Amino acid sequence: MKHVVLVFLLVALSAFAGAADPAADLLAAADAALAEAQVSFDFDAYRGQLETAISLWEEALPLLAADDRERRAHALNGLARAYFELAEAYLEAPAEREADYKTGSDYALASLRLDPTFVATEAADGFRAALYSASDVGAIFWYGNTIGQWYNYHQIQAIFSGIKDILASYERAVELDETYLGGGPHRSLAAFIAQAYFVLGKTRDECVEHYERAMEIDSSYLETYVNYAEHYAKATGRDELFSQLLATVDELGKDPAVVAAWPFYNYLALRRAAQLRP
């Protein structure tokens, strides 16, 4: 409950001071709720922090002017990420997870459409061309992640249209900022190729360069090793590589500084690694 108290104190203090920009107070309080999680991470508490941030961002959005692109993008990208993380880690019912992935993708798409170039390209050349014209790495990355997970519940639609949109999202994210979220664009692209290579007209081995590049960018992001182990090494019968990757996760996971670099995602990665071991 500590994070709730902190958030409401911030909002109350701003109101008491007669702040002229209530949206700014809401955005600051949302950021504070998640910043606290980075300082002292507790997996069970993090769900409440995510839900608090979601509530504050959603309250702030109607207060922001339509041309306030920077702050609208901040809130929309935060919402896309938060709904993704809730669905990934805390929701169990398939219908609830599907709904949150869709909500997250809608927010990410709204963020993409803040860019006049994206809108003009979509109107002239279609949606996929617009994805390749995106300029906000956060918006395009979280769109790829959320819509990609939503398509798991709509696989026919994914095969006929969505799969190339996911690929476009990750390829554009790599072009914009390959270092985002600890090499996230390469990591997501690698996992996507490893699992959907046959639909994409690629070979599974093409994922390797992206896994390796993500590890070069940030060796403390343990999900990269776990994805590499599960979706490539295990799937292709490379037992030695599989064991090496999980051994690396074990070793890095003993270092509190490594774990604290990405507390939420490293927590999930360590849990998955334990489940993957024979």
Summarize the structure.
The chain is mainly alpha-helical and 278 residues long.
Describe it for me?
The protein has helices spanning 2-16, 22-39, 43-60, 69-89, 94-112, 116-125, 127-133, 137-150, 155-176, 180-200, 208-217, 223-234, 239-253, 256-261, 263-276. The protein is an all-alpha fold. Helix 4 (69-89) runs parallel beside helix 8 (137-150) and helix 13 packs across helix 15. The protein is globular and about 60 Å long. It starts with a helix and ends with a helix.
Task: Write out key terms for the chains shown.
mainly alpha, 15 helices, single chain, 0% strand, 278 residues
Tell me the layout of helices and strands.
Elements: H1 2-16, H2 22-39, H3 43-60, H4 69-89, H5 94-112, H6 116-125, H7 127-133, H8 137-150, H9 155-176, H10 180-200, H11 208-217, H12 223-234, H13 239-253, H14 256-261, H15 263-276
